[in-house]
Design brief:
five-stranded parallel β-sheet; 54% helix; 413 residues; Rossmann fold; Zinc Finger, Delta Prime, domain 3
Amino acid sequence: MVGQQHLLGAGMALRLAFESGQAHSCILWGPPGVGKTTLARLMAHAFEAQFITISAVLGGIKDIREAVERAQVALASGRRTIVFVDEVHRFNKSQQDAFLAHVESGLFTFIGATTENPSFEVNSALLSRASVYVLQPLTGDDLKQIVASALAVAALPAIEDVAVDRLISYADGDARRLINTLETLAGAARQEQQSEITDVWLIKILGERMRRYDKGGDQFYDSISALHKSVRGSDPDAALYWLVRMLDGGADPRYLARRLLRMASEDIGLADPRALRMALDAAEVYERMGSPEGELALAQCAVYLAVAPKSNAVYKAFNAARALVKNDGTRPVPLHLRNAPTQLMKALDYGREYRYAHDEDEGFAAGERYFPDGLASPRFYRPVERGLEIRIAEKMRQLSARNLARSNDAPKV
């Protein structure tokens, strides 16, 4: 088997299972075309087990019952069974639960294959009974090995080295895609009597390269996470790389614009308030111009956010305030902060003793309280010593000192 040496290399988990002859239930998680089904079939061959395949896309409870019956017959004759469920994430909870008792009893060994994160798509009871193995996309060297094998066993014309590199790039780590493409090329070469697969001819046959991209699955969320972390980590080149990767893969630029807005608020905040305006401008430019012209504005924004000073002080303050409000009771608004548009409200002391900040020295009512009575003044917002927040922090220290001085000067009761 080509690839997956982190599982099949000497001393690795699945290599030890093969060598010991001990099958165990497992879930194979990885992108398309990396050998999940092949690996399951190899297990069945190595363990001399009956191999039953169920497609979660087309199958259901009826197929599971039939698999159980076949496994019981095989067990009676002393033969083990492997039940392989392709795209197991497509089964609902009750369908997944149907395997539990039989996996627990040892009637058969369960192997599930999925392209989605099992921790989200496979129920916890089944996960607890199966080991999860993560399969990786095949490397360029892995794919070159497959090309060499294909040339050795199939009626393919020679392939120039540049064309091999382009073919491997086109396959994008997917062996199934590579093999299907080789078969297409073989047929086209026979039809056109092509004696060699050149790079120019390859481009003509394949057309514009379409990369594998999962717009709603793990690859999508992993990529946006990488973009966000690159911006937060102040690496403009990495931010551009992931932005372009997502645009190239078909991600909606409007979604990327929304995420850039989130980054401007969460990771930059008041360290550079212009960042939020830059993100809004980029989103507006894209709405006006569309692709591909508007994508340049998103790139400009990503670079600006990456090099901007960073602060999550407002983000942390907002979360702290939200947590306090959620856990605290609904305290009444202090009388001096209430509005008093009617005589009755004024008679009830609404707004009484409120100090109008603009009438105070430097526009600040030192010592005035704005929190509910009985609630100690929490410190939600703590500016960092970066960007504009350096000046904000200094201003807050000055105001705090004036509040303290006013409190010390107040008559003691």
